[in-house]
Design brief:
478 residues; seven-stranded mixed beta sheet; globular; four-stranded mixed beta sheet
């Protein structure tokens, strides 16, 4: 009987311990929880979707084929966030449509089973790291239509490694894609049109480089960290020195800038302590060097024209002191073409208009009948244009595409809108109103109190009047 009682007591105690123990435990000992199985719909990776405004994608699990259909630009993906990311390790083939215009950065990053890719002829740009670390990629067909390849688009691929074995300077479609392992003095071949961003970045053994006149674009960070580079001459076709191009070139002693260079971004010469800028007197290069307190060496007087022809019977003259352009004669002004350029940060364009870039005021004399297409496209400092009653047509826009220039650097895209000066009821006034431009009537009665001449009387005028009053009072006291 006693034995039976002991057994019953032990059983009751065991039952109590099991009841009081936390869920998933036995006698205070944690037990493994049962696995929760998600439904197929919850675990299955997406195999189709959109990848641009007019682009769709689909993945065939059986064949490993990723197919993109449609046209236009591929959307910009967040780092490591292409919509087919979850199946990228399974992709063995990529089919791109004719009509696709660009391939986004990291679009096919680490698709390591991909062995070959054919870029359609509609594509013009390939983004950074687009095919980087595709460790099986041995064959890439790139058409001539691709004019801009961004940094590391093909890094760590067998295709690029094979090219580097043949030549450390890799040129694709007239663009220097990479030269990071080059040594000594490098001579770029004739016909090269651009040096892409980061092309020579970190090339520690580069001591000099000869750039042909065919080059028009040098990308940002192109020579960043070239510690042994000592001198360089920029050819006449280059219009802009992009962000941090020569940053950390500690040994750089001399750079020659042509008069075509009109824009220099920030940090271009950061840590170039021994640098001297060489160029023509009165050029943008000299203005930049003086403002940045960099030694300047003159190569002679400026060769920039201060006068010329801008129509069959029209001439122009530029007063460099007043920054004023005067156009005189009878008849129509010539139209001018635009050339478009692609950079890592922006696409921008430049007109072949002969007018200097630094015009602040333009006066068109009576007798001129039209203002030509893109005539003032480059004039991002232009504040006003005097338009006479003889002008009956302004072709296109007089606004200048302006990237927020703080004199030699760009910050953000915007448009520069000059004031149109003319007569009440004239075509000039009509054009200004139609294009949201400020209009200043030359025949208007003076506006009393408008001391800052902005065609309105407001607090700014009151402040100026107070300043004048205080200044006069202080003058009498002294």
């Amino acid at each position: 009987m006693k034995r039976l009682c002991k057994k019953l007591t032990a059983a009751l105690l065991a039952a109590a311990m099991m009841t009081c123990a936390a869920p998933g435990s036995f006698g205070g000992i944690r037990l493994p929880e049962p696995a929760v199985t998600a439904s197929a719909a919850e675990t299955e990776a997406p195999i189709s979707g959109t990848c641009g405004e007019n682009l769709t994608w689909s993945f065939d699990e059986a064949t490993g084929t990723l197919t993109i259909e449609g046209s236009g630009e591929m959307e910009i993906f967040s780092p490591g966030d292409a919509p087919w990311l979850s199946v990228r390790r399974k992709i063995t083939e990529v089919i791109l449509p004719e009509g696709l215009t660009d391939i986004s950065g990291k679009a096919f990053f680490r698709c390591d089973k991909l062995t070959s890719i054919t870029i359609p002829e509609s594509v013009t740009r390939i983004g950074p790291y687009a095919f980087s670390e595709c460790t099986g990629l041995t064959n890439i067909i790139i058409p001539e239509s691709v004019t801009y390849i961004e940094y590391d688009a093909f890094s760590k691929t067998p295709w690029l490694e094979a090219l580097l074995v043949e030549n450390p300077l890799v040129v694709i479609n007239h663009s220097v894609y990479t030269g990071r392992t080059c040594q000594g003095n490098v001579v770029l071949p004739d016909g090269v049109t651009q040096i892409t961003s980061w092309a020579f970045s970190g090339c520690k053994n580069l001591t000099g480089i000869t750039i042909p006149d065919s080059v028009t674009i040098i990308g940002e960070y192109a020579f960043n960290g070239c510690k042994e580079l000592r001198s360089i001459t920029i050819p006449n076709g280059v219009k802009m020195i992009e962000y941090a191009t020569f940053k950390n070139c500690y040994s750089l002693e001399s750079i020659t800038l042509p008069e075509t260079v009109r824009i220099i971004w920030s940090e271009v010469f950061l840590n170039c302590k021994n640098l001297t800028i060489r160029g023509n007197s009165g050029s943008f290069a000299e203005k930049y060097a003086n403002a940045e307190r960099i030694p300047f060496e003159s190569l002679g007087d400026s060769t920039e024209s201060l006068s010329g022809i801008c129509g069959d019977n029209l001439t122009w003259n530029y007063d460099e002191t007043e920054k004023k352009l005067v156009i005189d004669g009878i008849g129509a002004m010539a139209d001018y073409d635009l050339t478009c350029y692609q950079t890592l940060r922006y696409d921008y364009s430049e007109s072949n208009s002969p007018f200097p870039h630094y015009i602040i005021e333009a006066e068109i004399k009576n007798g001129v009948t039209t203002i030509g297409q893109n005539a003032f496209h480059n004039c991002s400092c232009l504040k006003s244009i005097l338009v006479p009653e003889s002008v009956t047509l302004i072709s296109g826009s007089v606004k200048a595409p302006y990237l927020g220039m703080n004199y030699w650097g760009y910050e953000e895209k915007q448009e520069h809108c000059p004031t149109i000066k003319g007569y009440t009821g004239s075509y000039a006034e009509e054009y200004a109103k139609a294009n949201d431009l400020k209009f200043e009537a030359l025949d208007a009665e003076p506006l009393w109190g408008d001391v800052n001449c902005d065609s309105s009387v407001d607090i700014a005028d009151a402040v100026l009047i107070c300043r004048f009053a205080v200044a006069d009072a202080e003058a009498e006291i002294t």
